[in-house]
Amino acid sequence: MLQRSARRPQFFYTTAPLPCPYLAGRTERKIVTELSGPEAEALHDRLSRAGFRRSHNIAYSPVCPGCQACIPIRIIAGAFEPDRTQRRIARANADVSAVEMPPRATAEQFALFHRYQKARHADGDMAAMGFYDYRAMVEDTPIGTGVVEFRDGTDRLLGACLTDRLSDGLSAVYSFYDPSAEKRSLGTHAVLWLVDRARELGLPYVYLGYWVPESRKMAYKARFRPSEVLVGGIWRVLGDETVNASVVMSSVEA
């Protein structure tokens, strides 16, 4: 007698079209699925390797008609070599300490998050988020995650990075920092710290989400080398001639 599997089916849905947050005049659509139950960690791992990202208890990936501008990217932590600018940023933030906190939203974090949104993304949806929205972003998670807090010598909170733990790396879900400390390049500093932490943990990758070459806000991710991009369903080293050709072709098609 055949036994039926007790595992419930995993459903995927496509969102309605919305304006693209990265490229003006384009439309965004996503494929989404719920992360829940005892299989959430394993599913999140598999989907991350397939180019998905997490928000709350949802995993998503862009499926925008006629556009392939969003390219999944991850840093090869063990082989990473900072460039001259990144070394300068590390020296400038030598006084900054990092502490890994549990996924619990605090009023201090939210105040910094709110200042960051108003200064950098005032026209975005996140600028209207209240504390309970922020708390949901941090705490509504079915998988291993935490908040890395970055503080100066006076214990002032300068930045934070919501970070997921995967079986093969760390995933930077969302980071924000004090807009008055822009010269510190704390966003880059946070990525450099994640690379060092991944090495300490013996994890091969740091997932940065989507690299969008045509977007000034997202193009910086390609500065961390060596890194890999997901092209044609295969992770390939960025800088390879085949990869460069594929990225150019994607931009032309978009």
UniProtKB/TrEMBL annotation:
Database matches in InterPro entries: Acyl_CoA_acyltransferase (IPR016181), Asp_Glu_LeuTrfase (IPR017138), N-end_Aminoacyl_Trfase (IPR030700), N-end_Aminoacyl_Trfase_C (IPR007472), N-end_Aminoacyl_Trfase_N (IPR007471)
GO molecular function annotations of the record: arginyl-tRNA--protein transferase activity; leucyl-tRNA--protein transferase activity
Enzymatic reactions: N-terminal L-glutamyl-[protein] + L-leucyl-tRNA(Leu) = N-terminal L-leucyl-L-glutamyl-[protein] + tRNA(Leu) + H(+); N-terminal L-aspartyl-[protein] + L-leucyl-tRNA(Leu) = N-terminal L-leucyl-L-aspartyl-[protein] + tRNA(Leu) + H(+)
An example Gene Ontology CC term for this record: cytoplasm
Keywords: Acyltransferase, Cytoplasm, Transferase
Domain spans labelled N-end rule aminoacyl transferase C-terminal: 108-230
Function summary: Functions in the N-end rule pathway of protein degradation where it conjugates Leu from its aminoacyl-tRNA to the N-termini of proteins containing an N-terminal aspartate or glutamate.
Record protein name field: Aspartate/glutamate leucyltransferase
